[in-house]
Amino acid sequence: MRESQLQQEDPMDRYKRENRRLQEASMRLEQENDDLAHELVTSKIALRNDLDQAEDKADVLNKELLLTKQRLVETEEEKRKQEEETAQLKEVFRKQLEKAEYEIKKTTAIIAEYKQICSQLSTRLEKQQAASKEELEVVKGKMMACKHCSDIFSKEGSLKSMATSKEDQGIESDDEKDSLKKQLREMELELAQTKLQLVEAKCKIQELEHQRGALMNEIQAAKNSWFSKTLNSIKTATGTQPLQPSPATQPPKEST
């Protein structure tokens, strides 16, 4: 019955209905095509943006990698230089320490020698003073025992003002007085020279003690400086903050 109805239907109407159906299908397909095209374009834009971002990020990472490699090379070079410098500093400070120890030993020996010389000079000075006093006492005793000299000199050893009547006694008294004065001046001069030598020796000992104390301070400062530089070099090479060295106690100076 349907086939008979379709056969009985006007072909023009059938064609129109089929045409409308095909037009609707075409419009629907075109809409789907537009949607797909729009989605494709949007996807391409998003992918392009993601690709640009990935390329930018890759460039940044490559630059950071190059900088890191360069810094690593520079750090290794600096570490090598610091190790060489540390070795040189160790050698220099070792030589300076040996030289300073030698100087200290030498200075100590000189000080001991000067102390011994001063002790000998003091003993000699005391002996000379005692001998001078004994000689003076002997001279005074002889002069007081002498008849002519006792009239000229007092018990304290000073000259008495008296007039002599005889020319020979005056000449003899003057000769004895001159000889005694000459001996006294010689003994006083020798005593003054001995005292001067003693003072010079004490001054020299004091100067050597001062030099020894300054040398000990320089050695301690050199040790502290070497220790500080070594720690800073190690900390810098490892990339950490350098430690500040603790202040070392100064060695006590010997009293002069």
Automatic annotation (TrEMBL):
Residues forming coiled coils: 12-131
UniProt keyword annotation of Hydrolase present: no
Region Disordered: start-end pairs: 160-181, 233-256
Keywords: Coiled coil
Bias (Polar residues): 233-243
Stated name of the protein: Rab GTPase-activating protein 1-like isoform X6
Organism from which the protein derives: Erinaceus europaeus (Western European hedgehog)
Gene that encodes it: RABGAP1L
